[in-house]
Amino acid sequence: MKLAYRSVTLLAGLAVTACLMSGVRAQEPPAKKTTHKKHSAPAANAAPDANAAAKPVIAESGKRDPFYPLVNGNKPSGPPLPPGKAGLVVATVHVDGTVSSPNGMLAVVSNPDQRVYFLREGDRLYDGDVEKIGLDGVTFKENSKDAFGKQVEKTVTKRIYPSAGEQQ
């Protein structure tokens, strides 16, 4: 009985020692980062490497830099959108208001970059058209493709909701 008790005690002591030793190793100072010096200056018209920011910094020990973010903040970029109204995407447009003018209704919209645009009925956007502008919102006809590549046309209505304290 004493032999079993001593062996269990010995194994428990070894397990505690192993845990403490791994904790000591974890508190060692991090390995120095290696920086590679460039032998020549890059050309003035050369574009910076887009994937350079996406690669994690690897130390000499072969471990990843723990302070480098796991999620890259860069958004995946597709083809650049054309400037102006033609670059507005129906899904990202925010309707700020509508205005009645002598020439018809105008919609005041903004894109995610907080740029403001004035739209009329029939205006062409990147992925659709402005179908109807009313006092309570704007109706768009959005053109897209489904998973099989078939053209899909759907109607999207973006309404203007009053904020707190506004009269209707």
Detailed description of the structure:
This protein has 168 residues and is of the alpha+beta class. The chain is built from 1 helix and 6 strands, in the order αββββββ. The strands form 2 sheets. A 3-stranded antiparallel sheet has the order 1-2-3, with no helix packed on it. It has a 3-stranded antiparallel sheet with strand order 4-5-6, with no helix packed on it. Helices cover 15% and strands 26% of the residues. The protein has one helix spanning 2-26, and strands spanning 94-101, 104-110, 116-120, 128-133, 137-145, 151-159. Strand 4 and strand 5 (137-145) form a beta hairpin. The longest helix is centred in the N-terminal third of the chain and has 25 residues, at 2-26.
Briefly say what this structure is.
It contains 1 helix and 6 strands, in the order αββββββ. It has one helix at residues 2-26, and strands at residues 94-101, 104-110, 116-120, 128-133, 137-145, 151-159. It starts with a helix and ends in a 9-residue tail after the last strand.
